[in-house]
Design a protein that fits this description.
With about 170 residues, the protein is mainly α. It is built from 7 helices and no strands. The protein has helices spanning about 1-5, 25-30, 30-55, 60-80, 85-105, 120-145, 150-160. Helix 3 (about 30-55) packs antiparallel against helix 4, helix 4 runs antiparallel to helix 5 (about 85-105) and helix 5 runs antiparallel to helix 6 (about 120-145). The longest helix is centred in the last third of the chain and has 28 residues, at about 120-145. It is globular, with a radius of gyration of 16 Å. It starts with a helix and ends in a 9-residue tail after the last helix.
């Protein structure tokens, strides 16, 4: 039941298509509050799901619970800093998540069988990078573009929403 609520088998493990990571892209529009939100959200999500998922992995699972939010912080910060080129910023954020998380996640899980011809650590990096590109550079970028439309963002700004300036 918990796994279904939290996203099922593609949310945790060697393939991590975390749709919530699409919110990292919104750092380009909403700034530091979004950076803090995706960092805290990742920490809470990992800690909440940790006992159900990792069980026998112990301290390695704790690494994911601590390093994952740090990686989200770095990725969201890079998206914010590179916001003038939004698509590039989203790709940079996705690559950050994919390379760092994929770089240690292989210690917890076997890589996807479809990439079985690659060494485990490379397969893990490739798998997580592809998942992150889908979540951040495709879904997140699309969400960012949609929310940036004047007919959407202007009413929100008139109600007090703070938006990052592009200067």
């Amino acid at each position: 039941m918990v796994q279904t609520i939290l996203g099922g088998p593609i949310t945790y493990g060697p393939v991590q298509l975390r749709v919530a990571d699409c919110l990292i892209a919104l750092s380009a529009l909403l700034g530091w509050p979004t950076v803090a939100g995706v960092t805290i959200g990742c920490f809470v999500g990992n800690i909440f799901y940790l006992p159900n998922l990792y069980g026998a992995f112990g301290s390695l699972a704790l690494v994911d619970a601590i390093v994952g939010p740090i990686v989200n912080f770095i990725a969201a910060s890079l998206v914010l800093l590179c916001r003038k080129r939004r698509l590039t910023a989203c790709v940079i954020g996705a690559l950050t998540v994919g390379i760092i998380v994929g770089g240690y996640l292989w210690l917890l899980f076997l890589p996807p069988e479809i990439l079985g011809f690659l060494p485990m650590w490379i397969a893990s990096i490739v798998s997580i990078t592809i998942s992150s590109l889908i979540a951040i550079a495709v879904i997140g970028y699309s969400l960012l573009i949609a929310l940036s439309q004047p007919k959407i963002i202007e009413p929100l700004k008139s109600r007090g929403l703070k938006v990052v300036k592009e200067n």
